[in-house]
Automatic annotation (TrEMBL), chains A, B, C, D, E, F:
GO terms for molecular function: allantoin racemase activity. Belongs to the HyuE racemase family. It is an enzyme of class 5 (isomerase). Its EC number is 5.1.99.3. The lineage of its organism: Bacteria, Pseudomonadati, Pseudomonadota, Alphaproteobacteria, Hyphomicrobiales. It comes from the Bacteria. This is Allantoin racemase. Keywords: Isomerase.
Amino acid sequence: MKIAVINPNTTASMTATIADAARRVANSGTEILAVTSSMGPVSIEGYYDEALALPGLLLEIARAERSGAEAAVIACFDDTGLDAARALATIPVLGICEAALATVSFIAQRITIVTTMERSRLPIEHLVHRYGMVGRVKVRAADIPVLSLEDPHSDARDRLRGEIAAALRDDRAEAIVLGCAGMADLSHALSTEFGVPVIDGVAAAVKQAEGLVTLGLSTAKRGAYATPVNKPYMGELQGFAPAQI
Amino acid sequence: MKIAVINPNTTASMTATIADAARRVANSGTEILAVTSSMGPVSIEGYYDEALALPGLLLEIARAERSGAEAAVIACFDDTGLDAARALATIPVLGICEAALATVSFIAQRITIVTTMERSRLPIEHLVHRYGMVGRVKVRAADIPVLSLEDPHSDARDRLRGEIAAALRDDRAEAIVLGCAGMADLSHALSTEFGVPVIDGVAAAVKQAEGLVTLGLSTAKRGAYATPVNKPYMGELQGFAPAQI
Amino acid sequence: MKIAVINPNTTASMTATIADAARRVANSGTEILAVTSSMGPVSIEGYYDEALALPGLLLEIARAERSGAEAAVIACFDDTGLDAARALATIPVLGICEAALATVSFIAQRITIVTTMERSRLPIEHLVHRYGMVGRVKVRAADIPVLSLEDPHSDARDRLRGEIAAALRDDRAEAIVLGCAGMADLSHALSTEFGVPVIDGVAAAVKQAEGLVTLGLSTAKRGAYATPVNKPYMGELQGFAPAQI
Amino acid sequence: MKIAVINPNTTASMTATIADAARRVANSGTEILAVTSSMGPVSIEGYYDEALALPGLLLEIARAERSGAEAAVIACFDDTGLDAARALATIPVLGICEAALATVSFIAQRITIVTTMERSRLPIEHLVHRYGMVGRVKVRAADIPVLSLEDPHSDARDRLRGEIAAALRDDRAEAIVLGCAGMADLSHALSTEFGVPVIDGVAAAVKQAEGLVTLGLSTAKRGAYATPVNKPYMGELQGFAPAQI
Amino acid sequence: MKIAVINPNTTASMTATIADAARRVANSGTEILAVTSSMGPVSIEGYYDEALALPGLLLEIARAERSGAEAAVIACFDDTGLDAARALATIPVLGICEAALATVSFIAQRITIVTTMERSRLPIEHLVHRYGMVGRVKVRAADIPVLSLEDPHSDARDRLRGEIAAALRDDRAEAIVLGCAGMADLSHALSTEFGVPVIDGVAAAVKQAEGLVTLGLSTAKRGAYATPVNKPYMGELQGFAPAQI
Amino acid sequence: MKIAVINPNTTASMTATIADAARRVANSGTEILAVTSSMGPVSIEGYYDEALALPGLLLEIARAERSGAEAAVIACFDDTGLDAARALATIPVLGICEAALATVSFIAQRITIVTTMERSRLPIEHLVHRYGMVGRVKVRAADIPVLSLEDPHSDARDRLRGEIAAALRDDRAEAIVLGCAGMADLSHALSTEFGVPVIDGVAAAVKQAEGLVTLGLSTAKRGAYATPVNKPYMGELQGFAPAQI
C-alpha cells in the first residue's frame, strides 16, 4: 500500500519530521510517500497563507494519485484544501485535524487542542464546529510561530507544555490533541510526561488512510465532491484546469 | 495483535457473520476473538433488549481484557453499553455505529443509515446527535426483524435494498451505512449494486481498533471513564462488583 | 392514586430518605410505594454502576405496574434506565433529573445542578443536552461519594453548600437543582439558607407523576417506546424475557 | 389553593371553555379563578394581536396576585407576555405552550403541535426552539381562525382532525399537542378517536401550577425576572408603573 | 428618503441623542424623523418595561408610515416590538440590536456587547441566539441604569469603559457593540480610546434602512409578518384595532 | 467613495453584468470599480474551482486597496476567499452570500436560496450554517451551469423560475435569494413576476459596503484577521508573499 503524506508548506525539514511520524506508525506493508509543496508559503499561519498553499497542494495531490498512491494525507492542522482535494482526487484524502478528532473521539469525552498561533485558533474552532465536536473540544494557542518548533533555542516547546498543563488543570481535558503538523514528533514524550493520551494528527491520519484503503472505500463522487467540470483556466494558472493538472 | 469482537446478543450464528466480516478486513497479524454473550436477549431490538444485554456484554469485556485482547469492539449498532464498557476496561472499546460514522465522515458529506426496525431508529438518531453528525446523517428503518436477516426465505434483504434506493433518490445520500451488525456480510454486494460506498460498522470498527492499538492509545481515565469505584453489588449481580467481574 | 418510587440502588436507608421526600409533597390521596432494588450496586456512581442497576430496576418497574401503581419514578439523578422502563411499562415513568429540569424551567432561566462525584458530571451534562437545556444549565460536582450524604461525620453537606455558594457567585445561577436522590431531604433547608429556589428531583417527579395520572396520560407506544417484542432471553437473565418479567 | 387562569383575549365564551378544561383536572382543593382580559383583541392571531394583549394581561396578573391567587396560567398558546408577567408577579406564572411541552416530554419523543392559523406557526416554532425541543416537535397549522373553533357551523374541527391524521401518517408523531387555548375541550375526544395521547395546554398548566405551589416554588427573582424597577409611566399607560399596577 | 427613528421610551432627551447619532451617518438626501413614544415607561429596563412600551411604539410606527417614512428604526437595544411592528407596517422596520449584529458580522468574528443592567443581559442573549450569533457574541452588563448615561455626575461611562476593557482582555473580543440606544453618542470616542471597532446600533440601523429602501425591499408579507387580520379591540385599546391605528 | 467589485472568475462578460447591478443601486457619490480576475477558472462551480480562484482574487484585493478603494466586494456566491481577503486587506471586504443573507434577514423569516449547480449546494449550505441561518434558509439548485445564464438559447432562466415557484409552494419561503453573481440582473423581473422579495447579493453587498465606509468601520485586526506575518513564498507564488503582493 502506498500513502502520500503531503506537507502543504514549502519547508522540507518539516516534511522530514512529518514523514518520521508517519512511518513510525505505518503498517509494515505501507510505503509512505512524503512530499513537500513546491510553491507557496514556508509555513501556514492563518487564512492568507492557507489560501496561497492551495495550488501547490493540489498539484501534489494530482501527482500523488498519478504515481500510484492509494490515499493522501494533508499534513497541516488547518485541513488546508481538503474539500478541493477530495473533489479532484479519486483516492481518499484525509486532513490531520479531522483524523485526530475522529481518533480521539473513541477514547475521551473532553479534549483540548493546543495549536501554535492565536490567528490559527479561530480557523481550528471552525473545524471543530464542522466536525461536530463543539462542546467536547476546546482550542488553545501557545503563541509560538510554526517554524520555532524546529528551533532548538526557542522556548516553543516549553510554551506548548505550559498550555497542556493549563488544559489539564482548567479545561477538564481528558486527552490532548497537538494542533500543528510540526509537533508530530512530540506526542509520545508529552503523553509520558503528562500521563494522558496525546494525539498527533499525522499518525492518526496514516492509520485512518490505511483503514479506508483496506476497506476499499474512497470519496463519494455524488454531490459536493463530484469530479470538477473541465473548463479553461486562465493566466498563470492555465495548467490547473481539471483535465491538465 | 488480538482484538475481541463481542456480539452482545446471544445468537451464535450472528456472531459467525460478524466474525467473518471482521476477519476479512483485519491485518494479517491481527487475531479476531469473536465472542457471543452468554446471557440476555437473542437479538437487540429497542431500549429494553439493550438494557438486558448489558450484564452479558460487560462480562465479555472483562473476560476479553483478561485473555489479552488489546481492544474490544461491541458489535451492535446501538453501541450498547459503550460508556460502561469504557469505564470498566483499560483497553480501548469501540462501538460499530461510532466507528462507521467516523469512517464514512472522511468520504462523504450526506449519509443515510439503514437499520432494521422502526423502534431502533430513534436510539440511532440519538447516537447521530451524540456523535455530532446531525444535519449530515439521516436514519431509515427497513421494518425488518434483526434475525430475519439470517432467514433465506424472508424478504428482509429486498426491503433493505428498497430503502437504500430511496435514500439515494430522496435523501441526497452520497454513501450508505448499514445499521445492524447482522448486515455485516452485505456491504460489498450492495456497494457494487448501487455504485456508492456502503459501510459496515463491524469492519470499520476493526480498522479503528487496530489503529488505536498501533498508536498506543487507550481510553482516558480522567472524568466519566474513570475506573469504577469498587463497592458491594447485591443479589444475583453480586459477582459484577468492579473488583470481582 | 398509587405511585411507585423506585430506588435503583440497593441501599434501603437511601430509599427511606427518598420516600420521606416523596410523601412530604404527595397529594393526600396519593399512596407512595417506595421500593429498593434487590440486585446491583449499593450506590450509582458513573456508567458502570448505572448499567448494572438496570435489571433490578426493570424488575421493580414490572412489579410496580402489576401491583397497581399508576405511575413510576426512577429515583436516581442519572435517569438510569428511563428509556427501557418506558418501553416496558404501560404506566408513565419519570426520571428525577428530567422532572427537576422540567419543573425548574418554569421559574428560572439560569440553573446550576450540584451533583456528587466528578464522574457523574458528564452523564448529567448529556441529560441536560438531551432535555434541551444546554445554555441554561451548568453542572457542578461537589466531589463527594453518594453514601457519604448519609454519614453525619462526613463533610459532604459542607462541600455541597460550597458548590451552591460558588454557583450563585460565579454562574449567574437563579435556582439550584440537587443532583442526587440522596440529597432529597436537603432542599428546604438549603433554599432557606441561600434565599433561592432549590429543587429536589424526587419531589418534582412525584408532582409530575400525579399530574400525568390525573390528565390520563401515559407513554406513547408508537416509535421507540413500543412494547418490547417477546423473544427468548438466555442464561441467568432468562426470566427477563418481555413476557416473563 | 387558588389558581388564576387568564385568557389574554377579550372573548368571554373562550374563557368559559378554558375554565371548564381547567376545572376538569384541578385537584378537589383547588379553586380556579377564570379571568377574561378587559382590553385588547378578541382573539390572538399573530404578533400584532399578541403585543396589544399585553397591557390587559399584565393588569389581570397583578389583580390575580392581589386577590390571593398562588399561581397564574396564561391561557394563550403563544405564551403571550410570559416573561413580563414573571418579572411582575411574585407568584409562579405558566404559559400553556411551555406546560404542554414539558408535560408531553415525559411520554413521547416525537410530537406534533396543531395550531390554528399559518401566521401563528412561526411564533410557536420560536417557542419550540426556546423550550429546547427543536428536532422533537413539528408545528402544523390547520388554517382556521381562532374564533371559528366556537362556531358549530364551521369546518374548523374537521380541518383540525385532518392535520392530526397527517401528523400521525407523515411526521412520525407519537403524541399530539393542541396549539390553541380554544381547543381545550377537544383533547379527550381526539385522543379516543386517534388512539394517541392528545395534550391540551390549559389542563397541563393547571397541574404544573398545582405542583409548583405544593413544592413551595416560585419565580427566581435574580436576573431577568427581577422585580421591575419603579419609574414613571407616561400617557395613557401611567397607571401601569410597577408601583401602581 | 425619509426614515423614522422611534425611541420607544418616553424620554425626549434620549431621543435627541439618538437623532444626533442617526443624522451623523445618514446620506445627505435622507431625512431623519426622530420620534419619542407618548405612552409607557421613561426607560426600558427588562421585560416588564418592554411589554408596556409596545402600544406607544406601534402607534408611532403607524404614524410614521402614514407620514411618508420609507423605513422605521426601533431605537431600543432589546429590539422591542420588532415582530409586531413588521406585521403592522408595509415599510421595512429594523431593530438596533439586529442591525448592529448584522453590521459587525462583516468585520469581526468575536464580539462583545456591553449593555446597561444585568436584567437586560438575558433578553439580549436571547436576541443573539435568534440572530444566529451564539458562539460569536458575548453579552456583558455594566450594571448602570439607562438614564444614568445622561447624567454627567454618574460613573456610568467609567463603568462602561471598564467592561470594554474586560471584554478585550478576557473575551477575545475583536469588536465591541454598544448595547443601549442611550450610548449612541459614544461609539467614536470609545473606538479611538480602545483601538477597536465600536458599533452603535442606531447608526448601523440607519445605514441598513437606507440600503433596504434603495434596493426596493420591504417586509415579506407571507407567513408570520402577514398584515394583521382586522377585528374588534376592546376597552382602552379599542383604537388599536388594525384598521384604526 | 470608491468600492471595488471583484469577479473572482475570469469571464469579463459576467463582470459586466455584475457591474451593472452594482451601479444600479450605488449612491450617486459612489464609484464602482469592477474588476475581473486575471488568472484561474472561467466560472466557479464547486470546491476545486474555488481553490484555484484564490490567487487571482487576492491579487485584485491588494490592487484595489492600493488604488484607493475604500471597500471590496467578492462577487461570487460561495464567498470565495473571504477570510483570506479580510486578513490581507485593511479595507472592509464583503461576500455576496453573507451580504444577501444579512439583508434578507431584516425582511423575512423563511428564505430560499436558488443556486446553479448541485455541487454548489453543499458549500452554500455550509455558509448558511456559518452565518447562523440554519433553520431559516433552504438551498435549492436549478442544475444549470453558471455560464449558461449568459446564453440566450439555454433554458437556464426557466429552470431558475421553476425552482423559485417550487420554493414558494413547498418551502414556506417568504423571500428568494439568487445564489449566483451571474443572476444579478434578474432580481427585479423575478420579484415582479413572483410577487415576493428577490435579493441579489451583488446589490446587497454594495449597500453594505457603503454603510461600513460611512460608519468608518473596517475589519478588526485582532484574532483570525490579523495582518499576515511576512515570510518567504516559494516557486511560482513567490510574488504573493504578504510584503510583496
